[in-house]
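Consider this:
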Amino acid sequence: MQCDLYDAGRCRSCTLMGHPYRSQLADKAARAAAALAPLAPEVRWLDPQRSAPSQYRNKAKLVVGGRAGRPTFGILDERGRGVDLRRCGLYEPGLAATFDPLHRFVADLGVEPYDVPGRRGELKHVIVTHSPAGEHLVRFVVRSPGSVDLLRSELPALLAALPSARVVTANLLPEHKAVLEGDVEVPLTSQTRLPVRVGDVTLQLGPRSFLQTNTPVASALYRQARAWADGASPSTVWDLYCGVGGFALHLAAPGRRVVGIETSSDAVDAARAVAASDETRFGATEFVVGDATAHTLPGARPDLVVVNPPRRGIGPDLAAWLEQSPASHVVYSSCHLPSLVRDLAAMPSLRATQARVFDMFPQTTHLETAVLLERR
């Protein structure tokens, strides 16, 4: 992949830019194998899951810079000035097609971009999620209720400029913080969830829901987890950190009880909506609001547990419980090798038998690693 922005030194986010994709993938697979080798010398590595080397991202988190009437969409440089990345080659074409209409809308709106060094201004981020059906979820991160009112009044103009926008929200982040979003989300459209087809399940995505960055590779990840589960033939599956139900819904099968556990009530409601839409397929699937590390659900204990934690990993408490649990199999999907290695070391009774790298993030050193663990 060639990138003018990288060549000009305006953006260095893609640290592997210029390296042949085949070498990128081989290096990631070798790095994952080396990391797990001391703990799992006999693990069988499946062929790594390739990605398109460009135009793969389904979500854009655009920092708004510049000035009122002339905003930039992209990142900030070392001095806090906006760098426009609307021509970045990582985004899916249907996602990139939203940038210019949204840019014109924000310019016409006249709202002042947030000036990080000066700590003044209103609009901080524009966040856009693209579904395979060509529909979009658009979020504006602003500082004050006045900007929310302005966006609400101009919503018809936005929908005219971007007819594919199905869900539009405003997020309030009044503080000067190095974070993406605040705690208050204000829906501006009557529709509040975006249907996103991943694999053979249509997930319902709310504004604050997690979605894997790379839809085709996420589909392959869910297929792999389902294949491992089918091989283990569990009666009961727990999906911890289940989010909107990606793993749980793909692992649903006749005669199999699947329970998803997630702290976000919005995500659980979205997963329940999908499960309720097809009782024949998902009738034995349920979702519970709770802390994945608490593992206090009543009823049958799990035969197989899926964990897909954030970068920090599952931590010592959950690792200790899994070590002593009745589960004969664990599927661990990790976006951070150091935390994966630490957690596996804390579960010596669970032996890694198969593993696979999923290249969610071409042009960067980041990778997703899925591991099948079996009770010794």
